[in-house]
């Protein structure tokens, strides 16, 4: 078959050994040209002899029973229950469920996010690590501390909202944070609650403080915070617990 092109020679090598007409036109062409050559006829005869020999080999009863039990020859379908509880299917289902839960958590976080969310969560961690001894002792009503913040630290508009203004304090402190800026922290006697006041983030184009309406809740490792924006300053009340612990203090919307 040396006079055949490479493509026709490859097709002739794959030609069926039965004496049937090939369905493909190029295959028919290759077989037609190859039949003119002695080596093709010899190869076909050899292949046919091997096929007849293989078909004549008896199949043992053990192999027949194995195929019959597995129903491989019949192509039996698995039931939906076996398919559903297959380890691979279960693993895929669990993975998809985890992805769906994570996606929902991220979506929910985005829906409830507000300007300053990341900073507020960071300050919840600060609240969790703060001890009463970290404060400078000050016993007064929280609403009276705005003058102290202005006169001592030159902090303007660091006003405690009226919802928490009458709470008694145990101490205050002021510290600087790379992200939050100048932070005023107040410790309350009730429920070991803590109040934070810090600058709101500013719009990159206008330079104005990014504010929002009403109270927003955030949670972080067992702590809950209620955040409000006013006059370019964010106020956050933080306590260890849930929304139920803060809800009684917040004014109705």
Describe it for me?
- It is a single chain.
- The protein folds into three domains: 6-70, no CATH class; 81-109; 114-249, no CATH class.
- It has nine helices and seven strands, in the order H-H-H-H-H-H-H-E-H-E-E-E-E-E-E-H.
- It has helices spanning 6-13, 25-34, 38-56, 61-70, 80-84, 87-112, 117-129, 145-153, 243-246, and strands spanning 136-137, 169-177, 181-188, 194-199, 216-220, 223-230, 233-240.
- A hairpin with a 3-residue loop joins strand 2 and strand 3 (181-188).
- The termini are far apart.
Strand content: 15-25%
Which regions are unreliable across 5 or more consecutive residues at pLDDT < 50?
Answer: none
- Largest β sheet strand count, sense and barrel closure: 7 strands, antiparallel
Question: What Rg is obtained from the alpha carbons, in whole angstroms?
Answer: 40 Å
What is the helix fraction of residues, given as a range?
Answer: 40-55%
How many β-strands, per DSSP? 7
Note the gap between the termini.
92 Å
With helices defined by DSSP (H or I, 4 residues minimum), what is the helix count? 9
The tally of domains stands at 3
Strand order of the largest sheet: 1-2-3-4-7-6-5
Summarize model confidence as the mean pLDDT. 80
Judged by helices, strands and strand pairing, the structural class is: alpha+beta
Morphology call: elongated
Question: Main traits of this protein?
Answer:
253 residues, alpha+beta, 7-stranded antiparallel beta sheet, 9 helices, 7 strands
């Amino acid at each position: 078959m040396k006079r055949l092109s490479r493509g026709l020679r490859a097709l002739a090598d794959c030609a069926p050994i039965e004496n049937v007409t090939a369905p493909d036109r190029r295959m028919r062409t290759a077989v037609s040209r190859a039949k003119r050559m002695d080596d093709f006829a010899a190869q076909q005869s050899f292949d046919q002899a091997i096929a007849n020999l293989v078909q004549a080999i008896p199949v043992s009863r053990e192999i027949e029973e194995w195929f019959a039990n597995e129903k491989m020859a019949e192509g039996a379908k698995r039931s939906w229950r076996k398919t559903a509880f297959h380890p691979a299917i279960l693993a895929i289902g669990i993975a998809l469920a985890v992805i769906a839960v994570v996606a929902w958590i991220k979506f929910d976080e985005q829906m409830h996010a507000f300007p300053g969310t990341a900073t507020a969560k960071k300050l919840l961690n600060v609240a969790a690590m703060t001890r009463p001894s970290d404060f400078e002792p000050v016993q007064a009503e929280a609403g009276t501390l705005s003058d102290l913040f202005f006169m001592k630290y030159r902090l303007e508009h660091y006003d405690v909202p009226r919802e928490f203004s009458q709470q008694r304090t145990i101490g205050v402190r002021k510290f600087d944070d790379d992200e939050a800026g100048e932070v005023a922290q107040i410790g309350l006697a009730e429920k070991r609650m803590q109040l934070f006041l810090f600058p709101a983030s500013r719009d990159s184009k206008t330079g104005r403080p990014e504010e929002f309406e009403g109270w927003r809740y955030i949670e972080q490792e067992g702590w809950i915070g209620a955040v409000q924006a006013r006059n370019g300053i964010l106020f956050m009340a933080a306590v260890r617990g849930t929304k139920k612990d803060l809800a009684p203090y917040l004014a109705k919307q």
